[in-house]
């Protein structure tokens, strides 16, 4: 086992020099089970995927018995990689990073396979060591959860990578031959034997008990399929994998249940293919054993992994240190706003409404303010509902599911949506009473701010809001008073009622 210092001592990953580039960048992940192309747009900020395609090639199938790559998988991989080469050229992608993992690394014919791929692309393939895989997976997770604390588990077809994370820094790590292709082959497709193999592998990792009471972060396609299954079978209201979290007991119960299901039973579940049905029980066995051994407080699934880690390594200096949620929302705001009103301007204007606000709550309020004009292009009759669903499914990292709902409800109310409507009701229980209140107050304040300013910049700076135990006061300068009207007064009174105070508009304050 190795420490964070030993990780740093590993041979460095090839540098990604994107400082001068503003075009698209692609990562091609040649995994033991699948080959995936992801194209990211403008990597001068935290990357946003604009294209994502996966082909299941099963390169690692049979590797444990033959020592060689699956011949059918090799042919399939060559065909899809040739397609990916042509696609990236047609898309104008400026840089393609080719990464190969466990199967290619372990196979005796891996070097020959790599040589052929390099001929297609005219560039080198990075064949990652187990340690490098683990490092990139951790970097990918940290791009979405910068202060992650606990254990990262990344399950691929050929291996399971484990990395301890201590408030965002690397700790011990291990790479184990427990991938969802490798494990059943090693066990002769007998689940009882697979459980023993897993137990033996985990018994040698003396630092796993250090996870107790912390978070287990889950990455990998087979585990994401498990998350979708958990969401569907429990009737969970939000179909977003990233940051889907379960308590220790619930995650263990679900993993144990799925580990015992037959392939034929799993195939009957909508959305599960035969190949996934074969892999899922073994993925569940690994997850069950990991939970039992590490005893985390929560299990949290992440959509950010090795590919995002590769991109983070190539971001301009300082970009990877930005808050991924706020960076994404600023970018969305720049694309969507009609005028130039700033989310920061709205945030500061409504600050007096939240006198005891914590830093995490203010961060979510800033994100909401930044995207609060996102629905203006929609038809007025559907604006609130479309904005709600779009905000709920923001493609940005750094949001818990409860925070997603807070943002979505706030934007829904900003567009005159009823917070008790049937649109909101399915996710209502993901919030506590304080979160619901904050979401509605934020939405009403956004509605007032955009009405008062007409979503134009500079107007709010001529006004202030003040809140005390009895009154909510809107102070207007003489110039700003010209922007007031019936709609402003109505919305101001609605906000005051929600806060449980009376409304006052003052026009003689000097600014």
Give an account of the 3D structure.
The termini are far apart. The protein has 511 residues and is α/β, with parallel strands linked by helices. It has three domains: 4-128, Nucleotidyltransferase, domain 5 (2-Layer Sandwich); 146-303, 2-Layer Sandwich (Nucleotidyltransferase, domain 5), CATH 3.30.420.150; 324-506, Hypothetical protein af1432 (Orthogonal Bundle), CATH 1.10.3210. It has a six-stranded mixed sheet, sandwiched between helices. It has a five-stranded mixed sheet with strand order 3-2-1-4-5, sandwiched between helices. The chain is built from 21 helices and 14 strands.
Tags for this entry?
Hypothetical protein af1432, 6-stranded mixed beta sheet, 3 domains, elongated, alpha/beta, Nucleotidyltransferase, domain 5, disordered N terminus, 46% helix, 511 residues, 5-stranded mixed beta sheet, 21 helices
Kindly summarize this structure in a few lines:
With about 500 residues, the chain is an alpha/beta fold. Helices cover about 45% and strands about 15% of the residues.
């Amino acid at each position: 086992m190795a420490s964070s210092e030993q990780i740093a001592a590993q041979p460095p990953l090839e540098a990604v020099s994107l400082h001068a580039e503003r075009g698209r960048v692609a990562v091609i992940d040649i995994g033991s089970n699948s080959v995936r192309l992801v194209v990211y747009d403008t990597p001068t900020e935290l990357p946003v995927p604009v294209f994502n395609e996966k082909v299941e090639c099963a390169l690692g199938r049979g590797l444990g018995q033959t020592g060689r790559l699956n011949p059918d998988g090799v042919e399939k991989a060559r065909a899809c990689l040739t397609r990916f080469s042509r696609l990236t050229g047609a898309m104008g992608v400026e840089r393609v990073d080719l990464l190969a993992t466990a199967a290619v690394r372990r196979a005796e014919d891996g070097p020959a396979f790599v040589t052929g791929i390099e001929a297609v692309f005219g560039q080198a393939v990075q064949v990652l060591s187990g340690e490098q895989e683990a490092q990139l997976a951790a970097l990918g997770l940290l791009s979405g959860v910068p202060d992650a604390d606990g254990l990262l588990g990344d399950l691929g077809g050929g291996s399971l990578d484990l990395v301890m994370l201590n408030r965002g820094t690397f700790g011990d790590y291990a790479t184990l031959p427990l991938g969802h292709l490798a494990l059943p082959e090693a066990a002769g497709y007998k689940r009882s034997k697979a459980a023993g193999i897993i137990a033996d592998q985990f018994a040698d990792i003396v630092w796993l008990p250090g996870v107790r009471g912390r978070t287990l972060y889950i990455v990998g396609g087979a585990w994401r399929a498990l998350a979708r299954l958990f969401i569907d079978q429990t009737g969970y209201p939000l179909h977003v994998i990233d940051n889907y979290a379960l308590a220790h007991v619930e995650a263990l119960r679900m993993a144990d249940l799925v580990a015992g299901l037959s392939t034929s039973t799993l195939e009957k579940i909508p959305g599960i293919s035969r190949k996934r049905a074969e892999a899922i029980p073994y993925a569940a066995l690994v997850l069950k054993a990991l939970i039992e051994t590490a005893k985390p407080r929560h299990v949290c699934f992440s959509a950010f992994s090795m590919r995002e880690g590769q991109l983070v390594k190539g971001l301009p200096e300082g970009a990877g240190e930005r808050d991924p949620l706020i960076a994404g929302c600023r970018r969305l705001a720049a694309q969507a706003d009609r005028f130039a009103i700033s989310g920061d301007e709205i945030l500061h204007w409504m600050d007096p409404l939240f006198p005891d606000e914590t830093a995490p709550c203010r961060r979510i309020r800033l994100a909401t303010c930044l995207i609060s004009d996102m629905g203006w292009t929609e038809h007025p009759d559907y604006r609130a509902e479309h904005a709600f669903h779009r905000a709920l499914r923001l493609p940005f990292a750094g949001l818990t599911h409860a925070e997603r709902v807070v943002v979505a409800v706030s934007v829904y109310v900003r567009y005159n949506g009823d917070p008790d409507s049937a649109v909101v009701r399915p996710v209502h229980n993901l919030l506590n009473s304080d979160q619901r209140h904050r979401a509605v107050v934020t939405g009403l304040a956004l509605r007032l701010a955009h009405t008062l300013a007409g979503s134009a910049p500079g107007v709010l700076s001529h006004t202030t809001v003040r809140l005390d135990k009895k009154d909510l006061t809107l102070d207007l300068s003489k110039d700003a008073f010209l922007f007031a009207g019936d709609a402003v007064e109505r919305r101001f009174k609605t906000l005051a009622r929600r806060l449980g105070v009376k409304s006052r508009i003052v026009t003689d304050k000097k600014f």
